């Protein structure tokens, strides 16, 4: 039972590090009951002591790498806590914050937290957009029923850069927003219609 894990954690006194913190946050997000959330909040409050400055964190062995930050960001996405999400972002070192995968994770996190404007702000801060970053933002527009914004961004992507995922994301965005005519226009413009693209359009048209 997950509850027994949290009971055990309450009895333990060791300092959490680069490996244990992300795992524990992820566990809290997956369980997502009152006890898990209380444990998560307790861990959040412990972070300031561990992250006062780079020298101290290095000495304590608590410097998080890109993978660890991705897990923490993903945890915030699952629980949708805006204040804690902003706190986590404020702790991310600049050299990590500028990594594209981290930025994509932040776009998803802010969208899940209900702050699409913050997601857009992160997206706009990406210096060199590729198909993955475009697809991520279009997908988040779709999940927030912002079909016209998804279409507008889709139109900004060079044709040679669009892939199957791009087409599926924008068609799904149209579906969430009820934009059938716009979806048909986009579908007709797609030169190579894969089975997945056809399936999305068929399901939308039913």
From TrEMBL:
<dbReference type="GO" id="GO:0003723">
    <property type="term" value="F:RNA binding"/>
</dbReference>
<dbReference type="InterPro" id="IPR046960">
    <property type="entry name" value="PPR_At4g14850-like_plant"/>
</dbReference>
<dbReference type="Pfam" id="PF01535">
    <property type="entry name" value="PPR"/>
</dbReference>
<dbReference type="InterPro" id="IPR011990">
    <property type="entry name" value="TPR-like_helical_dom_sf"/>
</dbReference>
<protein>
    <recommendedName>
        <fullName>Pentatricopeptide repeat-containing protein</fullName>
    </recommendedName>
</protein>
<dbReference type="GO" id="GO:0009451">
    <property type="term" value="P:RNA modification"/>
</dbReference>
<dbReference type="InterPro" id="IPR002885">
    <property type="entry name" value="PPR_rpt"/>
</dbReference>
């Amino acid at each position: 039972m997950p509850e027994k894990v949290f009971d055990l954690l309450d009895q333990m006194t060791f300092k959490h590090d680069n490996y244990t913190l992300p795992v524990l946050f992820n566990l809290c997000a997956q369980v997502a009951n009152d006890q898990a959330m209380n444990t998560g909040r307790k861990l959040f409050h412990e972070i300031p002591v561990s992250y006062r400055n780079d020298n101290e964190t290095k000495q304590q062995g608590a410097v998080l790498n890109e993978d660890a930050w991705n897990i923490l960001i993903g945890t915030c996405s699952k629980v949708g806590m805006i204040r804690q999400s902003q706190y986590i972002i404020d702790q991310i070192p600049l050299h990590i914050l500028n990594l594209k995968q981290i930025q994509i994770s932040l776009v998803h996190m802010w969208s899940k937290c209900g702050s699409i404007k913050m997601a857009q702000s992160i997206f706009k801060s990406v210096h060199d957009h590729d198909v993955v970053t475009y697809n991520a933002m279009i997908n988040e527009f779709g999940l927030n029923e912002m079909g016209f914004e998804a279409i507008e961004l889709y139109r900004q992507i060079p044709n040679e850069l669009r892939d199957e995922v791009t087409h599926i994301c924008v068609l799904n965005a149209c579906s969430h927003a009820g934009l059938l005519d716009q979806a048909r226009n986009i579908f007709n413009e797609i030169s190579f219609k894969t089975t997945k693209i056809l399936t999305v359009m068929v399901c939308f048209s039913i």
